[in-house]
Specification:
Blueprint (H helix, E strand, L loop, with lengths): L2 H10 L27 H4 L10 E4 L2 H10 L1 H6 L9 H19 L8 E6 L5 E6 L5 E10 L1 H7 L3 H12 L11 H17 L6 E9 L5 E9 L6 E7 L6 H6 L11 H13 L3 E8 L9 E9 L3 E10 L3 E10 L7 E10 L2 E10 L6 E13 L3 E16 L2 E16 L7 E18 L8 E15 L2 E19 L3 E13 L42 E14 L2 E16 L8 E12 L2 E10 L4 E11 L1
Parallel strand pairs: 1-3, 4-6, 7-9
Antiparallel strand pairs: 2-3, 5-6, 8-9, 10-11, 10-25, 11-12, 12-13, 13-14, 14-15, 15-16, 16-17, 17-18, 18-19, 19-20, 20-21, 21-22, 22-23, 23-24, 24-25
Helix pairs in contact: 6-7
Length: 620
């Protein structure tokens, strides 16, 4: 029999115990575990009907443990403690030191000494001298199961996993030993094995042996990885309208692939992001006899085939608004989705529609969309029309959308120049990338998002020449916690349209700044170039920046934050002489379950006035 097999056999009997202390002699000066009649506290009996007072003199963690679990402390706290007789109190007081030493052993305090002292007023003091805490003196970690067999056959993944778990074992020699740390270390290793596809992993045996000096603990463990679970058939349940083949096709692994926790989570996330299912649960049958071809169970709850949503809200940018959105998730009984959204606000009215295929295994979709938008500003009114066709992909946390756009805009000045209009059109090829690495997509506090858009096309207009253009726009936002309760946010944005001076593109392809999510303290879209008639128009270049720091108002209201911020930027016709407008102020955020409500009071240094920015929306 091999050394590994002998060790596994020897430890099998210990596998069920959380930890075992072997060959543990009594601590120097320790008393026997039975009640000690010579203890001073027991010499004088407690009068019947009188409850003793107990003070525990020990370090914080030890004191809390004894106050909760010591029989004497628990008896004193009983409602009927006054009914205990002298014999019962003497027994509890006499056994307290031995029981206290036993209770603190899970904290690694094997050399602790305890004694009970009695004051003249009858108060009992249980004094604990913890002694030197035990440390791990030796570690023996052995492996068995398919993981070892694969590693010995030269499988690099298995060898890396085995070596990594051995090297990352939390209780290395020299570290402090406690029962809690011992249990956590064992649970961590088994959880890591199971996450890598060894769902039946367990400990074949574990033991912790305390040395004769009570200062060191020798650890012995044998981990049995069990078999590696591999994907077999995919069983889909819970569907009524959507075909199960669509859910199976989205699996990010092939038959025979190791069923790791990350692959199952990726599969679950992919199914949720389709928008076709309200809830998803992905798991597999952990029967070791079927590990070579385990059944993957996908439990789904379909989203309604059709759904309508009504929303009301208010924004300092566009004023009060109401919206109506309708979604058809299986059009003409085919793998097609149709979405239409109408929005009516004081400063903006729009329709946006999209026909798209259901995503394939690589999460690619074909998209056909259209937009009509009318925006009313202080100095102009812009009517935008857009037709778009393209293909979107969402893989590895990066969303990519490559599309061909046909844009047309009609811009009309208001005020003294009312009636002056310009029509512009463009045909372009666009590519957009979005990367999100945040802890919460709705209410992030840590991480970052990056967006990049590139475009190339040709433009024409009623008052401009025909010509080609290029367009680039980038935006990055970072989130960083500061200390325990402070949070910071930094946003940088820049863009430029490259074209001849006599060429102009539609307003949707140019830039404007000002308002919420841009430069606060200024009206929406107001930081932009001015025409000769005094009306505003979109700029060819853009740069904005924002820095914000926030923290909860109080511990009692963790979802309500106050914030301080500084914004800067504008849109312009060129970088020559570019001068950003500055805005700064204070705000309040309510981090609601459906998204943040933001109220900001910002001072615009360029206009020398304050502006209130409010953003809130409710969907039904």
């Amino acid at each position: 029999m091999s050394r590994r097999a002998r060790l596994a056999a020897a430890l099998c009997a210990l596998a069920a115990a959380p930890w075992v202390a072997l060959a543990q002699p009594a601590a120097p000066g320790a008393t026997a575990s039975a009640p000690d009649a010579t203890q001073p506290a027991a010499d004088a009996a407690v009068s019947a009907g009188k409850v003793p007072r107990l003070r525990i003199d020990a370090p914080g963690a030890v004191r809390e443990l004894l106050e909760k679990h010591l029989d004497l402390a628990r008896a004193i706290a009983q409602p009927d403690a006054a009914s205990f007789n002298d014999l019962e109190w003497s027994r509890l007081i006499g056994s307290a030191p031995a029981q206290a030493r036993q209770l603190v052993q899970p904290l690694g305090l094997f050399r602790a000494q305890a004694e009970v002292q009695r004051a003249d007023d009858g108060t009992l003091t249980l004094r604990i001298t913890p002694g030197e805490a035990a440390q791990v003196s030796r570690l023996t970690l052995e492996w068995t199961g398919e993981l070892v067999e694969r590693a010995e056959r030269g499988d690099s993944d298995a060898r890396t996993l085995q070596q990594g778990l051995s090297q990352r074992w939390p209780l290395a020699p020299g570290s402090a030993f406690t029962n809690a740390a011992w249990s956590e270390a064992k649970n961590t290793v088994i959880a890591s094995l199971r996450a890598q596809g060894y769902a039946a992993a367990s400990w074949a045996g574990t033991a912790a042996e305390v040395d004769a000096e009570l200062t060191g603990v020798r650890l012995f463990l044998v981990a049995d990885s069990g078999p590696l679970f591999r994907a077999g058939v995919i069983a889909v349940s819970g569907l009524t309208h959507q075909p199960p083949e669509r859910a199976r096709a989205l699996a990010p692994f092939d038959s025979g692939a190791a069923l790791t926790e990350q692959r199952l989570l990726d599969y679950q996330t992919t199914l949720l992001k389709t928008g076709l299912y309200e809830s998803v649960n992905v798991g597999f049958d952990p029967d070791p006899t079927q590990a070579g071809a385990a059944t993957v169970n996908v439990q789904l709850h379909e989203a309604p085939r059709q759904a309508a949503t009504v929303g009301v809200g208010y924004s300092a940018n566009t004023g009060p608004r109401i919206s109506l959105e309708h979604v058809q998730r299986r059009l003409f009984d085919r793998d097609l989705s149709l979405r239409n959204k109408l929005l009516w606000g004081a400063s903006e009215q729009s329709w946006d529609g999209e026909l798209s295929t259901h995503p394939d295994r690589d999460y690619r979709r074909w998209v056909l969309g259209g937009t009509l938008d009318r925006t009313v500003g202080d100095t102009d009114t812009v009517l935008l029309q857009r037709l778009r066709v393209g293909r979107s992909t969402d893989r590895g946390g990066i969303e990519r959308f490559v599309h061909v756009d046909a844009d047309r805009s009609r811009e009309c000045a208001s005020g003294l120049a009312a009636g002056t209009c310009q029509t512009l059109s463009a045909l372009s090829l666009q590519a957009d990338w979005t990367m999100r690495r945040v802890d919460n997509a709705l209410l992030p506090t840590r991480g970052y998002t990056v967006q990049l858009g590139l475009g190339l096309g040709a433009a024409d207009g009623s008052d401009s020449a025909r010509g080609s253009f290029g367009r680039v726009q980038a935006r990055a936002t970072g989130y960083w916690p500061i200390g325990q309760s402070w949070y910071s946010q930094l946003r940088l944005e820049a863009g430029q349209v490259l074209m001849r001076d006599d060429v102009q593109v539609p307003d949707a392809l140019r830039f404007r700044a000002g308002g919420d999510e841009s430069v606060r303290g200024y009206a929406w879209r107001s930081l932009a170039p001015t025409r000769g008639d005094g009306s505003l128009t979109g700029g060819r270049v853009l740069a904005t920046a924002s820095a914000e720091i926030a923290r909860p108002v109080s511990a009692a209201l963790p979802s309500v934050w106050w914030a301080a911020f500084v914004d800067a930027g504008r849109a312009s016709d060129s970088w020559r002489g570019f001068s950003p407008a500055l805005g700064y102020g204070l705000g309040v955020r309510w981090r609601s379950p459906v998204g943040p409500l933001k109220l900001d009071l910002a001072y615009g240094q360029e206009v020398r006035s304050a502006r209130l920015h409010l953003s809130v929306g409710i969907a039904f």
